[in-house]
């Protein structure tokens, strides 16, 4: 039996027990995990050093090494993240509806855990703990398959968490780490119908697309964001500049940052040169359409491929459009249904934009950077769904649950 | 361009317009469709005769020809089904939540259509109309791919419905029928990410498994039901018999009927012979474990394969179990997470069964035959979900919707 099947079966073997844990028991497990991480920080940092060393030998880019690196402060922050999950309400067991039928049947719709959740992610050890915390809080078992570049770190973290869970009512089997560094272990997870109830990919677009294209297990597609800001005719220029700069440059590496700025031609004629200067000051490289380049001569030319690219970097496409229709068409063609924004003082256009744009989050006069479970007030986030089934947009704890109907009868039969 | 892509693109081209139709406009479209079906019953029946003739020539079984056959009464019933959908509340546009954030952002969570729904089904013309009605009522476009044995009928029905829609505010492009009878057209639909938002298979288990195994478009798995009834120690014998007979024999061809009866050994010793007689009177063939066959000598022996089979027929597996644990283990091994029942007077066992069984609907003292959108009071049903994502159990109109966050700001940027 492969490692993947063996560990998924172990995970599945405890789902019934997990579903019966009380909120207090689950919270105690998470708090014990948090304490154990801090108490064992040295061992985790030592394991992490091995991953970092190997990464440097392999010529891993600095930005990726930074995501991989742990120190005492980062481990404390990760532990604090678990404690924050403890504070959140537990959705499991909630009665969502009670139906009483004319024949006397009582039908209760109850929130239950999903079962076994597979998480496929990159070499980011914080995701190991964060995903485990969210899944366990909602009574799910979790099978983690992190990037192999973090294997020493993840193995040490999971060893610490298993030891912590052994002191609690939560069975350690609920948390499984796939250690096989080969791509085949990912492929195997993707087809594990019957053992995994859902797979959530977290990472860049190639990781996500591989999961979406090859999984037979149900998937919640997350993350890829080609987000647009459309500055309408008559938009407030100061507000437009503040929102556009924030959407691009406040943190370009994340999925809710802007990749393309669409500007109404009237607004562009009056304000695009100044807006270009603001982006130059923020060290953002601009790639513009022809009309943009007459107004911002230093902008590079933009290509179709640029419009379809999630840069996650200090690069921005700029396109001047004739009207809101052209903006809507562009977004329909290149958007990834994540987050889109209109800056306008025209209420009619705002309403039309919010109705017509097909995306998880559609903003009027606010930065797309707010698409986030914490900013929405959910207190946690397992990811941002860009699909329409099950959950859309930032996913808090309820997105990690399903429902079950319990039906109470006294001998009813169907006529 | 293939027929599938061309028609999916046509469907997608109208989703924005569909999303804006009022409930009254959608209802008017459905009523016009219903009237047109009845007015054109002769043409539909003539087309249906061609399918039936071809089916007889090909040696199609009588039961399948019966599902395919239409007459005036059946067309009236199908039209009546559309009128019933008109009477249901329209979930689209409902505000599910309004969040006001400390920074002044107002976040509204709104129900929206899913977009374009693909339905893959067998040679049952009633599904053509029923699925179209449910999808259009919820503002979705629909791409239908019915069994090729019903092609003449489906083509005629869709021609009638297109003519009807042309007289209404609903664009006829919202309804597409794939006419290519080759399996390749199904395969193409399964990979149509970006054009189809979801695929719902309706039919037998091989059709559903093909979709689940091969689709890259998100799927809602429906239907397959290996349902169990567990008769506990001390169950009321009359109630147990009534429920078991109803679950098996009231309509064996449907997914919520019982395939395996599990009987506690004490109950079996006292009551299984009489229960066997009741099934014999109902012309149900029994296949039993060894203990069953000592009590019901005429029962055939049961195999592992039998336990894993959805008969949809007058055949029942019977197994005597030592206790509720053995019943739960059997259900965990062979159940399809559809509908399961315990008959017992022991409240503790009932509660444990309802908690521990992982299924969409778990019954205490009532027949599994009630798992149905109409019996649950939803007024409609696009299918019964046996997966845990998005929707579980009978799916009414809300299962055909997604959500969107509309965010209202006045210049907010992220700090």
Automatic annotation (TrEMBL), chains A, B:
Location of the Aldehyde dehydrogenase domain: 5-284
GO biological process: L-proline biosynthetic process
Pathway: Amino-acid biosynthesis; L-proline biosynthesis; L-glutamate 5-semialdehyde from L-glutamate: step 2/2
Listed EC numbers: 1.2.1.41
GO CC annotation, single: cytoplasm
One Pfam family hit: Aldedh
InterPro entries cross-referenced by the UniProt entry: Ald_DH/histidinol_DH, Ald_DH_C, Ald_DH_N, Aldehyde_DH_dom, G-glutamylP_reductase_CS, Glu-5-SA_DH, GPR_dom
Compartments in which it is found: Cytoplasm
Domain of life: Bacteria
Catalytic activity line of the entry: L-glutamate 5-semialdehyde + phosphate + NADP(+) = L-glutamyl 5-phosphate + NADPH + H(+)
Protein's name according to its UniProt entry: Gamma-glutamyl phosphate reductase
Taxonomic source organism: Paenibacillus stellifer
Source organism phylogeny: Bacteria, Bacillati, Bacillota, Bacilli, Bacillales
């Amino acid at each position: 039996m492969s490692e993947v099947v063996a560990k998924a079966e172990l995970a599945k073997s405890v789902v019934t027990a997990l579903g019966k844990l009380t909120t207090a028991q689950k919270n105690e497990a998470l708090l014990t995990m948090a304490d154990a991480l801090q108490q064992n920080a040295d061992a985790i940092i030592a394991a992490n050093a091995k991953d970092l060393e190997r990464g440097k030998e392999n010529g891993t880019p600095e930005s990726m090494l930074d995501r991989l690196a742990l120190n005492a402060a980062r481990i404390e922050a990760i532990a604090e993240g678990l404690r924050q999950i403890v504070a959140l309400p537990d959705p499991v067991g909630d009665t969502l509806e009670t139906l009483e039928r004319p024949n006397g049947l009582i039908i209760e719709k109850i929130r239950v855990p999903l079962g076994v959740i597979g998480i496929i992610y990159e070499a980011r050890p914080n995701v190991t703990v964060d995903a485990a915390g969210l899944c366990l809080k909602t009574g799910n078992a979790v099978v983690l398959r992190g990037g192999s570049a973090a294997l020493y770190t993840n193995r040490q973290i999971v060893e610490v968490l298993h030891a912590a869970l052994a002191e609690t009512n939560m069975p350690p089997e609920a948390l499984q780490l796939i250690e096989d560094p080969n791509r085949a272990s990912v492929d195997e997870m993707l087809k594990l119908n019957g053992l995994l109830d859902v797979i959530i990919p977290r990472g860049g677009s190639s990781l996500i697309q591989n999961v979406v294209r090859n999984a037979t297990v149900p998937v919640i597609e997350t993350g890829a964001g080609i987000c647009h800001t459309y500055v309408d005719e008559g938009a407030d220029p100061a507000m437009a500049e503040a929102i556009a700069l924030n959407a691009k440059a406040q943190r370009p590496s994340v999925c809710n940052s802007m990749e393309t700025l669409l500007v109404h031609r009237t607004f562009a004629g009056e304000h695009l040169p100044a807006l270009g200067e603001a982006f130059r000051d923020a060290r953002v490289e601009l790639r513009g359409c022809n009309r943009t380049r007459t107004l911002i001569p230093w902008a590079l030319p933009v290509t179709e491929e640029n419009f379809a690219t999630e840069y996650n970097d200090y690069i921005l496409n700029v396109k001047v459009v004739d009207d809101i229709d052209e903006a809507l068409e562009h977004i329909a063609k290149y958007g990834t249904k994540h987050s889109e924004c209109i800056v306008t003082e025209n209420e009619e256009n705002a309403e039309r934009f919010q109705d017509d744009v097909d995306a998880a989050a559609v903003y009027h006069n606010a930065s797309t950077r707010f698409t986030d479970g914490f900013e929405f007030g959910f207190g946690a986030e397992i990811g941002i769904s860009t699909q329409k089934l099950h959950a859309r947009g930032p996913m808090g704890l309820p997105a990690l649950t399903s429902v079950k109907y319990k039906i109470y009868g006294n001998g009813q039969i169907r006529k």
